[in-house]
Amino acid sequence: KKFNVAVVGATGMVGNKIMEVLEERNFPIDQFYPMASANSAGKKVHFMGKEYTVEELNEHSFDKDIDIALFSAGGSTSKKYAPIAAKNGVIAIDNSSTWRMDENVPLIVPEVNPEDLKWHKNIIANPNCSTIQAMVPLKVLHETYKIKRVVYSTYQAVSGSGVNGYKDLEEGSKGEPNKFYPYPIAFNILPHIDVFEENGYTKEEMKMINETRKILHDDSIRITATTVRVPVFYSHSESINLEFEKDFDLDELITLLEKTPGIVVKNDIKNLQYPTPLDVAGKNEVYVGRIRRDESIDSGVNLWVVADNIRKGAATNAVQIAETLIQNNLI
Ligand code: A2P
């Protein structure tokens, strides 16, 4: 069977990558509808060997016979249009943060909690990029050793801010002033992603904390996070410190990660093998290295986790959600 698919935000960085990933994975598409704002209506895009004309998103966009709409056009667009899609029987897979913590909306990493897709009501949320890559290793470790506490420290690429962030690094490295971030990002790091909240955390930090609990179905896990923007174009890196309830054997833990679908373990320090953003850019998997015991506590481990934020952190995960719906006859 083939499906009618819309990409909302088809002219954006993630929307473009979604189209690339759909093509690479030979997604079973019948009709294809690229959508964006009025600014882009009429533009041509190439997809699966054909040329398509970008349509303006409006209240009637989902009157058509569409099976799946992949949204990546900002929170306010999703807030308004995902319910319109859902009401018309279109499954909206949404990359914004708008619906993630809604109790009627499953928040999905396909390798981690595909069972939550069963209760979807036509809106499905793609988690935050930093959360997605952490969930793939944390799920199996939580199942096996029960995670008590998580300390996340992130090193996030500028592409996570879209085209404007990318330009600030590109032009900043040539000596141009910053236009998007509050301070230069070239040759600098900023301990500030998204807006600050009342408690002194950033919204990005709170997304990691809340989304982790929702995806792992465990509100008892204690979590803290510091999220940092670094002068890297693609791939987020994370230092993740975990404290377990149970004891563990380090070799067994490494084997568990090696056997987990979606993970590549690159952990051979003798040969200087560990993941870096440059070598992970363009990959769909989550890379894990620097796996070592936290010797300051009874049972804990440190992980270095790197993934392409535009692929596994956004586009690849969204397309995998669509594939999982099809495999499980949930569409
Ligand atoms: P457009 O290019 O027409 O502005 P990015 O995050 O890379 O900036 O991309 C954002 C994407 O979301 C673009 O495709 C953009 O379309 C789209 N978009 C932004 N606002 C709207 C809107 N109100 N309706 C539809 N698409 C939108």
From TrEMBL:
* EC category: oxidoreductase
The GO biological-process annotations, alphabetized, read as:
'de novo' L-methionine biosynthetic process; diaminopimelate biosynthetic process; isoleucine biosynthetic process; lysine biosynthetic process via diaminopimelate; threonine biosynthetic process
GO molecular-function term, one example from the UniProt record: protein dimerization activity
Semialdehyde dehydrogenase NAD-binding domain residues: 4-120
Q: Which residues bind phosphate?
A: R100
UniProt KW keywords: Amino-acid biosynthesis, Diaminopimelate biosynthesis, Lysine biosynthesis, Methionine biosynthesis, NADP, Oxidoreductase, Threonine biosynthesis
Database matches in InterPro entries: Asp_semialdehyde_DH (IPR012080), Asp_semialdehyde_DH_beta (IPR005986), NAD(P)-bd_dom_sf (IPR036291), Semialdehyde_DH_NAD-bd (IPR000534), Semialdhyde_DH_dimer_dom (IPR012280)
* Cited SUPFAM superfamilies: Glyceraldehyde-3-phosphate dehydrogenase-like, C-terminal domain, NAD(P)-binding Rossmann-fold domains
Catalyses: L-aspartate 4-semialdehyde + phosphate + NADP(+) = 4-phospho-L-aspartate + NADPH + H(+)
Q: Does the keyword Oxidoreductase apply?
A: yes
Residues annotated as binding NADP(+): T11, G12, M13, V14, N39, S40, S159, G160, N309
Q: What pathway does this protein act in?
A: Amino-acid biosynthesis; L-methionine biosynthesis via de novo pathway; L-homoserine from L-aspartate: step 2/3; Amino-acid biosynthesis; L-threonine biosynthesis; L-threonine from L-aspartate: step 2/5; Amino-acid biosynthesis; L-lysine biosynthesis via DAP pathway; (S)-tetrahydrodipicolinate from L-aspartate: step 2/4
What residues form the catalytic site here? Answer: C129 (acyl-thioester intermediate), H236 (proton acceptor)
Enzyme nomenclature, EC number: 1.2.1.11
- Residues binding substrate are Q156, R229
Annotated function:
Catalyzes the NADPH-dependent formation of L-aspartate-semialdehyde (L-ASA) by the reductive dephosphorylation of L-aspartyl-4-phosphate.
Quaternary structure note: Homodimer.
State the family it belongs to.
Answer: Belongs to the aspartate-semialdehyde dehydrogenase family.
Its name, as the record gives it, is: Aspartate-semialdehyde dehydrogenase
The organism is Alkalibaculum bacchi
Q: What is the lineage of its organism?
A: Bacteria, Bacillati, Bacillota, Clostridia, Eubacteriales
